[in-house]
Amino acid sequence: MLGSTTDFHLLDDKTLFNLHQVEQNSAAIDVLWERYRHLLYGQALSYLKDTEAAKDAVQHAAIQLLTTQKTLEHPKWWLFTIVKNFCLNEIKYIDNKQFIDTENDYISENEIIFVENDHLDTLIKTEAEEALIAALQNLPVEQRVCIELFYWETLSTKQIAEKTGYEVNKVRSYLQNGKLNLRKKLVHTT
């Protein structure tokens, strides 16, 4: 058991999240949340272009973080995914609402069903993202690291090489093989 809040700043995201899950340690989750709260707000604001809606997205992520019962390998990515999905759903909802509002004369039954099935689309996307994260965990470490840095942190192959110490050609190889392995793993899970 850690003694003070300052100890938590030295821990990685997964450890902080696990402390919260296992020990219900609010100080650990507070440190984790403070690391990414402002970045999540920025992400939401870039999608929604509205400060109040962005605050709602961040609040939604906070609630998800506090209430999830899942084991998270990468809490940071999970949080960004939660915010992204929330924002995309908001955008889709706004677009659908505007479509319906402009077509007041006649709304077909199919269009109403499309709007009502929005939640189902969200569930399907969430399951697909969870499958992707699970598949990532089963990749060889080098491939997983390169894919995570390339796609989630949007680093170039040169930047990945500098960060990991791998040769640039090895990074390209890990990325290519990692994508192939991910594709195979995802095909078998669906």
Summary of the model, kept short:
This protein is mainly α and 190 residues long. Helix content is 81%, strand content 0%. It has helices spanning 5-8, 13-23, 26-48, 51-67, 75-102, 109-116, 118-137, 141-152, 157-164, 168-189.
Q: Would you write up a description of this structure?
A:
This protein is 81% helix and 0% strand. The chain is built from 10 helices and no strands. 19% of the residues are buried. With 190 residues, the protein is an all-alpha fold.
Keywords:
190 residues, 10 helices, mainly alpha
Write down how many β-strands occur, each being a DSSP E stretch of 2 or more residues.
Answer: 0
**Rg, Cα atoms, Å:** 20 Å
| Order of helix and strand elements from N to C terminus | HHHHHHHHHH
- Quickly count the helices: 10
- Report how far the terminal alpha carbons are from each other: 41 Å
Mean pLDDT: 76
Secondary-structure map with pairings?
Blueprint: H1 5-8, H2 13-23, H3 26-48, H4 51-67, H5 75-102, H6 109-116, H7 118-137, H8 141-152, H9 157-164, H10 168-189
